[in-house]
Design a protein that fits this description.
Helices cover 39% and strands 23% of the residues. It has a five-stranded antiparallel sheet. It has a five-stranded antiparallel sheet with strand order 9-8-12-11-10. Helix 15 packs antiparallel against helix 16. About 1% of the residues have low confidence.
């Protein structure tokens, strides 16, 4: 393979990478917009709605449904932004929860049934969240969704499922609040973020037990209820628990508002936020006065046993041979709290355990092992610990030993923290395995000791196990020789089959030696960057070409005025009959130089015009590069869409010209939108010339077909007067920021290929500029040939209008020499008033086009309104580019180029325009 061929392959690969990066960038931007709307929603219901709205705006969906499958296999609509289908059944001819699908034609999938009618939809995206949830997105348009759309829907499906779960959690919280409010146990909640721990809520049971109304206690610390001495152990323990926000169960002597004493069993537990910080302290209170007085002796015995077990936080429970409780320490009550009371001596274990389970019915979890007294026999025989998960989320290890009297000693240790740490490690490992980036761990010699599936694939291994013990650098031809001892970042390449991949590798040292390396495939990124650079250069070339065309047009216009005076004066001199013989050669040289100068000006006018009309190209070659050319110039709040139902169209002309026109129209639309959020849309269609509306610029051949390219925006729009002038050279609505030549040049380019331009706009309704470009089939209109005639102007009265007095004098002198009566005007408004005062007094109007105050087009319009049959001749340096319909579309008006050929002018006046 020679160097040129390798270069071409490299360029092709770069092109592919840039295209892929552009798609990834657009997909990422769209996803970020959706996430922003989702995050800004005030609640889970609004978050769900924002996802459906985002799908409607980003991918053009007409209906989005989050469907769920219940235990019986029925599928219903769990969430949508349409109330009429919420909760309705939907039955698809295939499994909606099996895999993602992008269906462009629903009619081929089979029959749908259920209450949700999908008959009016054409395309469908299916993104399963799990075996029971899936996000469906329907579209009515005949065009299917793009490949990138399914990626967006898949990513949003998880958010939709989470929002649905959040709705369920919110409902559960409401139910829990109602339960607390109506509970028979007193509930008090204190603010744990305030060192004073003021009460922020008490329920009705608290008011009933304490005798205090809520208004009397809110904002106060609940210590005012205590009847215990300040140094009482139970009160001190409660005080410590409150100070450290620790959970606990306490039995305290309290006094009601009326002064009566009662024993209060208080269970304290902290409520943490998502970051693990304690925000509230919740205390449940029960009046246990009778139980305390009846069990004082038993409590003294139990206190002695608890003292012996005070050094441990484990729960200890002793059962006699009949399965009754002989002893239970405080941790038993903490681990297994009962709805009413504590684990009491002589209570039946099976009955007490059932009461504990009943008291946990409102908790989210469930016990993993239903214990009975008979089960401890097998547990004691095993001699090992068994795991037990509690409804409140704690995890225990339970052990049992048989006593001599046939009973059992049972202990339980809280291993919640250890289990949480194990789960956290497992989750982090799962996240590492699921990431798209390759993550690997090496020893100090660069040998792989761990790598996730993505790293194995990037390094070329089908199984991570096969890579262990190998040096990662061996997989790259340009890897660094040593990476030991410090952080590094490098870009390397490897060959995977016939394709060359470029990887970015970052390494960070580990404390015990070795490194963590992160591998990222940047092949597509590099290709996309190269493609973007090419497109940027092309845009700059087009802009530079347009600037050159505008500059040369202005120079040619000014130079033509001078040249008209020079060549016209030479012609007048030559008409003098008494010239010396030696003057004739000089006049001949002046005429020859004027002819050459006119040709030079014509060549200047062709610079940058891109007016090729004989070439053929497909419109898709222009549309494919257009987003990259336009998006780079748009702010983040403005979107650019292309809707090309028929992109495969063969057009005549030059693709660069069409690309330049469309870019200019998009940038004009951007300026019309301004700093607001908006959308620019380019639509592509075809139309016969006989069916098209009357254009603002150019003419359409009824026997010919055209490509219709319409650029629409939702900007400020224009009134009718402004819309009529936008194609006039030097007219601009942008003030000093605009040249007034952009749309005029575009109109000229459209006319040069036989096309036309139409405008639709209204204030606050946006603007649509439609370009009619001839298709490759069909013929164009033929320009009429000039009519011959004898140059004789006897009896003709002619008005000559030109803001340059020298040009006007030359033209007037020549016409008077051939019999005409000529009146010259430097101000076109004077000429307009003269014609309007006496329309029948004039035989013809000869006017320059580019004049201050009133253009030749505006003067021609006023003259035509006053004198419908008046012949009008317009002289302009832009004769081939002039797009003013008041001139080009009027059959009684003829256009002559500058510098004017006086003989051609004479023949045009001698032959009436309407007799051609």
């Amino acid at each position: 393979m020679d160097q040129d061929e390798r270069l071409r392959e490299a360029l092709l690969e770069l092109q592919l990478l840039r295209d892929r990066e552009a798609r990834v960038h657009a997909e990422t931007q769209t996803l970020l917009d959706c996430l922003e709307a989702y995050s800004a929603a005030p609640g889970p219901g609004e978050a769900l709605t924002s996802l459906f709205v985002s799908l409607r705006g980003k991918i053009g969906s007409d209906l989005s449904l989050l469907v769920a499958r219940d235990a019986e296999g029925d599928t219903t609509v769990a969430a949508t932004d349409r109330a009429d289908v919420l909760g309705q059944s939907i039955v698809a001819p295939f499994d909606l929860f099996r895999r993602p699908r992008n269906i462009s034609d629903l009619s081929v999938t089979g029959d749908w049934s259920g209450a949700v009618d999908v008959a009016g939809f054409r395309a469908l995206l299916v993104a399963p969240v799990s075996g029971e949830l899936a996000l469906l997105t329907f579209r009515r348009l005949p065009t299917g969704f793009r490949k990138d759309d399914i990626n967006l829907v898949q990513r949003l499906s998880g958010l939709a499922a989470q929002a649905l779960r959040n709705l369920d959690v919110a409902a559960e919280k409401d139910m829990l609040a109602a339960t607390i409010s109506g509970s028979s146990s007193g509930v008090a909640i204190a603010d744990a973020t305030d060192p004073a721990r003021p009460l922020v809520y008490v329920n009705q049971a608290f008011e009933r037990i304490s005798g205090y109304a809520a208004a009397e206690v809110l904002g106060r610390n609940c210590r005012f209820l205590s009847d215990e001495p300040p140094d009482a152990p139970e009160r001190a323990r409660l005080r410590a628990a409150v100070a450290t926000c620790a959970p606990g169960t306490f039995v305290l002597r309290n006094r009601r508002r009326d002064g009566t004493m009662f024993w209060n069993e208080l269970t304290l537990f902290p409520v943490r936020d998502g970051a693990g910080q304690v925000r509230k302290l919740v205390a449940t209170q029960t009046d246990v006065t009778d139980r305390i007085r009846a069990g004082e002796e038993r409590d003294r015995l139990r206190q002695r046993m608890e003292s012996a077990l005070a050094a441990t936080d484990d729960a200890f429970l002793v059962l006699d041979g009949d399965g009754r409780v002989a002893f239970a320490n405080a941790a038993v009550d903490l681990f297994f709290p009962l709805p009413q009371g504590e684990w009491t001596e002589g209570a039946d274990f099976d009955t007490t355990w059932a009461a504990y389970l009943d008291g946990c019915s409102d908790l989210p979890g469930r016990v993993t092992r239903r214990l009975r007294a008979a089960d401890f026999t097998a547990l004691a025989r095993l001699g090992t610990s068994q795991g037990l998960d509690l409804p409140d989320g704690r995890s225990l290890l339970v052990r049992a030993g048989r006593l001599d009297d046939g009973g059992f000693a049972v202990s339980a240790t809280d291993v919640t923290a250890m289990r949480s740490a194990q789960n956290l490690l497992a989750q982090r490992l799962a996240a590492i395995e699921a990431t798209a980036d390759g993550i690997a761990m090496t020893d100090e010699d660069g040998r792989l000791v761990y790598l996730n599936a993505a790293a194995a694939a990037l390094l070329g291994y089908d199984d991570p196990g096969r890579a262990l013990g190998r040096r990662w650098r061996a997989q790259y031809r340009d890897a660094p020789a040593r990476t030991r001892g410090g952080a590094f970042q490098t870009t390397v390449s490897r060959t995977d089959g016939s394709a060359v991949q470029t990887h970015e590798i970052t390494g960070s040292p580990l404390d015990g030696g070795g490194s963590i390396i992160v591998i990222r495939d940047i092949t597509e990124t590099l290709e996309t960057e190269a493609r973007e650079e090419e497109l940027t250069k092309e845009l700059i070339r087009l802009q530079r070409q347009e600037a050159i065309a505008q500059l040369t047009a202005g120079i040619a216009h000014d130079f033509n005025n001078l040249l008209s005076a020079i060549t016209g004066s030479a012609t007048l001199i030559e008409m003098q009959g008494d010239l010396p013989p030696e003057v004739a050669p000089h006049l001949a040289r002046i005429g020859a130089a004027g002819t050459q100068a006119a040709k030079l000006i014509a060549r200047l006018l062709d610079i940058g015009a891109d007016s090729e009309t004989d070439g053929l190209f497909e419109v898709s070659t222009v549309l494919s590069d257009l987003p990259a050319l336009v998006d780079a110039a748009l702010p983040g709040g403005i979107a650019f869409d292309i809707r090309a139902d028929r992109p495969a169209l063969a057009l005549r002309g030059d693709p660069g010209t069409l690309s330049q026109i469309l870019v200019n129209l998009a940038l004009n639309a951007r300026d019309a939108i301004g700093s607001r959020r908006g959308r620019i849309t380019l639509s592509v269609d075809t139309m016969a010339g006989s069916e098209a509306p009357v254009p603002a610029v150019g003419r359409l051949d009824p026997a010919r077909s055209y490509a219709v390219l319409a650029v629409s925006d939702d900007g400020a729009g224009m009134d009718a007067a402004t819309a009529e002038r936008i194609f006039t050279p030097y007219f601009t609505t942008k003030g000093r920021l605009g040249s007034g030549l952009g749309l005029a040049t575009m109109a000229m380019q459209a006319r040069s290929v036989g096309g036309a331009v139409a405008v639709e706009s209204a204030p606050a309704q946006g603007t649509t500029i439609t370009l009619f470009w001839p298709l490759a089939t069909g013929g164009g209109a033929r320009a009429p040939a000039p009519a011959p005639g004898t140059p004789h102007l006897d009896g003709r009265t002619v008005i000559v209008v030109d803001d340059d007095p020298n040009v006007g004098a030359v033209v007037a002198g020549y016409l008077e020499a051939h019999g005409a009566e000529v009146t010259t005007c430097e101000d076109p408004r004077d000429a307009a008033e003269a014609i309007e005062e006496d329309p029948d007094a004039w035989s013809a109007l000869v006017t320059d086009y580019d004049m201050p105050g009133l253009t030749g087009g505006a003067l021609a319009a006023r003259a035509r309104a006053a004198a419908p049959d008046l012949p009008i001749l317009v002289i302009t340096a832009l004769a081939r580019r002039l797009s003013d319909p008041r001139v080009t579309d009027d059959p009684g008006t003829r256009v002559l180029p500058k510098p004017v050929d006086l003989e051609a002018l004479l023949r045009a006046l001698a032959s009436p325009v309407r007799d051609r």
